[in-house]
Task: inverse folding
């Protein structure tokens, strides 16, 4: 029997507070996210990846790189609205919920350097989706959130709170929905959260590891 690439959620041993916090945020992402504190090797990353496998498929607008929701009344990105205005009937397709990560070293979190793309926009060039665009309606996994630049933490928390990401770069702009299950992990041995990050966050928090130590506001 092939060994699954990602350990199923149900195979995680113990770690009940972490699992409960993840599931609650999956049920209602408006909780604001989870911060998982724990030592290395305590299944933090494994649990986040496994959570994606637990979630049902979602319906998205076919061809939308921001995974807009096709439900009536839901916020559409600029590109979907332009397609609608042009008379196109937006089709819906199902896809699995995914997780995307936001490494502390990658600068394209908020958005997006201008680029030409195979999907032409009205101007022939468009902004790349960026981490927040990829994360829409998925799980956004921020490993080592304590090592992330303050500015990026603010951008993530703003987008999580507003549900929208507004990108303006070099004469181009795009507005797209940005709703995601925010999960940050950190190893307290590698440094604490910066004060601005921890006070700015409404995140539910929990911990994993041999010595549980919940922090932040529940
Ligand atoms: N409670 C647990 N249940 C199942 N597997 C675990 C558990 N804790 C650690 N592991 C295993 O240990 C390895 C390291 O886990 P990982 O998720 O990378 O840890 P972390 O992200 O906390 O450093 C993985 O192969 C994971 O399956
Ligand atoms: Mg890890
Ligand atoms: Zn769209």
Result:
């Amino acid at each position: 029997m092939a060994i699954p690439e990602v350990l199923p959620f149900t195979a995680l041993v113990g770690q009940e507070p972490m699992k409960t916090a993840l599931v609650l945020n999956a049920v209602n992402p408006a909780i604001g996210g989870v911060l998982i504190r724990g030592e290395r090797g305590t299944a933090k990353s494994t649990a986040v990846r496994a959570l994606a496998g637990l979630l049902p498929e979602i319906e998205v607008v076919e061809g939308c790189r921001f995974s807009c929701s096709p439900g009536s009344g839901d916020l559409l990105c600029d590109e979907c609205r332009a397609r609608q205005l042009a008379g196109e009937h937006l089709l819906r397709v199902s896809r699995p919920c995914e997780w995307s990560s936001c490494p502390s070293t990658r600068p394209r979190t908020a958005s997006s350097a201008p680029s030409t793309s195979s999907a032409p926009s009205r101007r022939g060039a468009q902004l790349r989706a960026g981490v927040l665009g990829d994360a829409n309606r998925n799980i956004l996994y921020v490993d080592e959130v304590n090592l992330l630049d303050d500015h990026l933490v603010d951008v993530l928390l703003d987008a999580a709170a507003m549900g929208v990401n507004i990108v303006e770069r070099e004469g181009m702009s795009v507005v797209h929905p940005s709703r995601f299950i925010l999960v940050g992990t950190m190893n307290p041995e590698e440094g604490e959260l910066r004060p601005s990050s921890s006070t700015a966050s409404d995140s539910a928090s929990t911990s994993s590891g041999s010595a549980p130590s919940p922090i932040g506001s529940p």
